[in-house]
Amino acid sequence: MNSDSLKYVLREFADRSLPESRPRELSLPTDSGKVIGLSGVRRCGKTFLFFDTIRQLVAGGVDRRRIVYLNFEDDRLQPVQAAEFDLVLRCLREVFPEAATGRLYLFLDEVQSAPSWERWVRRLCDTEDVSVFVTGSSSRLLTRDLSSAMRGRSVTYEVFPLGFREFLAFRGVRYEAYNARSESRARAAFEDYLRWGGFPEVVLAEPAMRPLILEEYGSVMLHRDLVERNAIRNEALMRAFLRHCFRNTASLLSVSKLHRDFQSQGYEISKNTVFEYARMLEDAGLIFLLPRHEESVRKQARNPRKLHVIDPGLIGAFKAGAERDVGHILETAVFLECRRRAREWHYHAGDGELDLCDAEDRLFINICWNLSDFSTAEREAAAMAAGARLLPKAKGVLLYHEHAPDTAKRFPEAQPAWRWLLEQGKGESHP
Q: pLDDT at position 9, please?
């Protein structure tokens, strides 16, 4: 990290206007006394949450020269050496002498590109009057490294692509309950959401650009967040693994079956490698793996986990095309809203399959695309009855997109998925 380049970066940020951004449901505390961490997949909006927080500080009277924003993927800062971190405050005070005293605010973006960053942050908090905010596109990087280094002096928020409520706000669609025209617009927008997902740039882009942007996201995530970060030698195998996950969202991930499938395709791969690749995708925030509900931890470990991907739009980026199951995509959209509000979810299998259950077994949710189909309605009726027997104290919810005229009578606990998503409590990420 060259000091002259660093000074240019510091002055450039202080002088330029902040990029325009739209408000999110998550807002960050500015003087909590904690290091604030943001973890989440690349391009989900972490940087713009930084900019919103900086606007809040400036509106409160903080001098822009006391605010530092550094993106550690900026080529002008590369290569970053741990011994050079102290240049940041030294250069700031040389460029802006008035920053020599008083509180400073440091916003450090994509810190996984900077070695030993957590030790420097801890030392800063011990020796300087600073508020520190960091982002990373690796969940373990912040939840493990930051919390371990700061020893109770940090809080990490998860950031997701837009939920459906935020999607409508970004599109300028106002929803009014019990207004037929408004509900019709919301339902049509929901189908758009299931197709294109919630990455902010994609939501605001022209239709012709959306698939191109998503394909670029997929490529960058593969190379930067998986291959490069984990020093993977067999890029073709990781690409095939990633494609499999995004083509099979809301499905069970059986390591043994996937191992056999890859071997039949000519890949030399061990079961341990399949486990490791799944861990890497989880670490990068690209997938979530839900355990099956079991009383025994050993039994739980033996059963396949249910796979959900981070965003419906990325499914198309991996060439799923006509193979995509809209029912599975709908289930993933519901899961993502649930995951924004609580970390721990599982599924039930056996005597009636339950798609989602919370950690305390106070809520179970089943999701299907079309309740007007007779066989689907029979299956869901049996599953909801089984859920009531298995979890007698839990509230059961059945979500759908298409329905029959008698749905309300037969399934009083059922409602359209798009309406349920809009009526949930604020979908902000929780620390």
A: 95
